[in-house]
Amino acid sequence: MNLHEYQGKEILASFGVRVQRGKVASTPAEAVEVAKQLTEETGTGWHVIKAQVHAGGRGKGGGVKLAKNLQEVEDIAGQIIGMDLVTPQTSAEGKRVHQVLIAEDVYYPGDSEPNEFYMSVLLNRATGRNMIMYSTEGGMDIETVAEETPHLIFTEEVDPAQGLLPFQARKVAFNLGLSGTAFKEMTRFVSSLYKAYVASDSSLFEINPVLKTSDDKIMAVDAKVTLDENALFRHKDYAAMRDLREENPIEVEAKEVGLNYVDLDGNVGCMVNGAGLAMATMDLIKMAGGEPANFLDVGGTADAKRVEEAFRIILKDENVKAILINIFGGIVRCDRVAQGVVDAYKNMGDAIKVPIIVRLQGTNADIAKELIDNSGLAVESAVEFQEAADKVQAVLA
Question: What are the binding positions for substrate in this chain (predicted)?
């Protein structure tokens, strides 16, 4: 589950990480009031206005701007709130901005070249260890740094059983070229950041940039946080931070009815039971010359109601030209699935306007094929994987 910057900073601050202070606003008038409060609390007269969307590169799309007075706060907030922000990480249509973060200006006068670093904490799946990735080249795309100057990216792996050891935090500060007060500040920053990552059950904490001010303070100026959804039952307060406006509406609807669905860009809808079979089915579609339009795992309960819900979800995608149902009947009997397909098709009537290929293998597969073939509906049955692929290829031709 992705969080907004202001939410990520709230989590960081709760674990003792120094962050750029700020508050969120949904209207220009509210933005002005927030700016006034920040001025009273921090003494800053300048404020940074940041669009709150789940995408990086906001500055490149005009979603991050500096306001030097309250009038500019109101004007800039009015420009950003409601805009469709297009960044390198959004679609061509962009993402609608519903709120902005009004943050203190932490770049002191005279700091023409502030020290900005990059830092993230994530799981290295190859080693099964948590990893701190960091660089002296903060404030820019880390992908560009990795491509052009890979020697400027450092990593520090942490054994989950032992946790981050003091010498490792000091090593990070040393590799960033720090000394004195800044060295001690960075050591504390790294330790607190890692603690936040582990305690919040996150899959990613990315801070770009981490700022060293002219008086040697170390703080998070940005925060990209992704939480592990499987652990949200332990964090009810974090679960409440979910912003459904930022998520794919079809995926949200599928989740509400208990379907495992991921929206893709293809033209063949998939309805499968089991994640492994779903992945194999997507490969099958590719080999047949199509592109999977979704990942959809209906699980072990493929009755008429569940199949109908899956149909409706798939058909919300206007790019779908055909649907391939691929079910292995182990726990669930194939004839029950076939009857579910027939009943769902009849219930939906004219709503189904695309060809449907059904491959059922396993318990009572022969009975299931008869049910499909004798239904009188525009549904084609298949037995073998290759047969299903050939029929997909035929309907796309």
Answer: 273, 330-332
